[in-house]
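DM from R.C. (forwarded with permission)

"hey, sorry to bug you on a friday — could you get me a structure for this? deadline for the figure draft is monday and I only need the backbone to look sensible"
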Amino acid sequence: MTTTERTEPSTTAAERDMLEGWLEYHRETLMLKCAGLSDEQLRTAALPPSALTLMGLVRHLADVERYWFREIMAGEDISALYYSEEDPDGDFRVTDETTWVQTQEAWRAEVAAARAAAAPLGLDDLSGAKSGSGKSFNLRWIITHMIEEYARHNGHADLLREQIDGATGE
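My reply, with the result:
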């Protein structure tokens, strides 16, 4: 797997560009981890007993983008794509009917919506909604949290991809 398709974050950018550059880098990394695999491979839980799959990770991150940027930061009254109170792990759950085309389209739509929600805001702007624990967040915190979220799950994706076809890389 090559890493040349990713945009390397600047080493000298201002804070906003630096944070957004690292978030984009990690978004692109996740897509690289999934590149070239079949739907069946993307649905494969490659590290038993875990049921975690690459497609499940992408579904999860679509919901995470939606939650933090749209529901919390922008204050939109929207529900999750894949999980619910009745099925809190629904974003990770995939079936034989779950396709990469649908999953990737949903993820790309949420990333685009996240970018649009963040674009007019400053890093110190506070969220339009509060978390379940009653906390407000500024955009800086949300972007930083998203970098952490992707970085952690990209580590999972590394292990899954290597077990599926032996591909390794950053």
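R.C.: lifesaver. The mean pLDDT is 95.
me: no worries. Helices lie at 15-34, 39-42, 54-73, 100-118, 139-165.
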